[in-house]
Request: fold
Amino acid sequence: MSKTLRHDVLLVEESHDLPLVHFQIVIASGSIEDAAGKEGLSRLSARMLRRGSKQRDTRKIEDTIDGLGAELGIEAGANYVRISGSCIKRSLDKTLALVGELLNEPSFPESELAQLKRETLAALLELTDSDQALCSIHFRRGLFKGHLYGRPSLGTPGTLARIELDDVIARYREGLITRPRAIGFSGDITYAEASKLVDTHLARSAPISSYPTEPSEPTQVRGRQLRIVDKPERTQTQILIGRLASHPRDEDHTALLVGNAVFGGAFTARLMRAVRSERGWSYGASSRVGMDKVREAWSMHTFPAATDAAPCIELQLALMDEWVGKGIDDKELEFAQSYLMKSHAFSIDTADKRLEQALDVLLYDLPDDYFSAFTQHVGATTRSQVNAALQNRLSSKELVFSVVCTADELADSLVKATGAQSSEIIAYDADASEPTA
Reply:
């Protein structure tokens, strides 16, 4: 959670076209605070809030939500726990009364913890069915090896087994109920109405008395590291290639976004043209710059047939070297600026999206005008700034490769194509979420 969130904050984005209200309660507490060996604790503690209160058991809670025609979800990220929902305006008072009850008066029934553990184990098993999910998991494990962001928010079978009810209750008391909150509303509601509802139903049951762990900056992996996720009978592969990039507070962050739009951030970008349009190797080919509290990844994603995987990687590396080494031209700059500025309109066209942006400013320690002045910053970016950002932030000499494939068919060709200094083969049904630190 951002260092800027040291007290409770109320955010409201009004839109009175429909009698609907969306709400979010974002708590400054996340999975990076899970104790070593008990990864998954924050997620379990957060989800247990919906499994029973002093007034209702889980079935009555679900019946109440259904009766109100409301939606309610709880998630745990690396730096936050988020309770979110929506309902028609006339049900908002009763919906928030229920949310306040769950947040301030949880009962933590032990039978529900056992059930939630079983559901989490099933979710971990489902991950092995998704090649794309496996590719992403192992990419991040390699990129953030030894860092808090490399730890699994879901936990593992081993860590889940070690979590007891007392751990869950302690996590709630010390890391959820006593932390700063950002409470946001969007839709058919005014600030005055929202403030009154918060005071009535979401008032604190405990004062702010603790603050979250602040993640350190991750360290860039040295050399090229290849992680092969071995899955039998794969005729198609999933490939992620990338490295650490920048944070939005870096002076060259916007320039990097502009440069990325040229390379792989748009349908007509260089990567898509070369991989899909000209060679037909992968239906999709894209690159992106991630965003979080600390530096995140720049990555490129393709999913070619197994027979095309090695040449596709070689092509991607050649394209990256040309892009970083020679930069972009004036025509590409104009295209990227136009694309980013026009597409930005779709990120602010609803009250829900504007609320998300306001929360992101708090969550990820963004500049206050990151979204409001985005188009101005993009429009003011020069070609020389873009090319300098590419050379400053990106190098093909230090990359993490994650490939889901059948290892005995492709391992040798992948090591050669990537030029990896180190490589490892990981069974697809091994614990994909095993802690890295």
User: Anything to note?
Assistant: The CA atoms of residues 51 and 351 lie 30 Å apart. The first helix runs from residue 41 to 48.
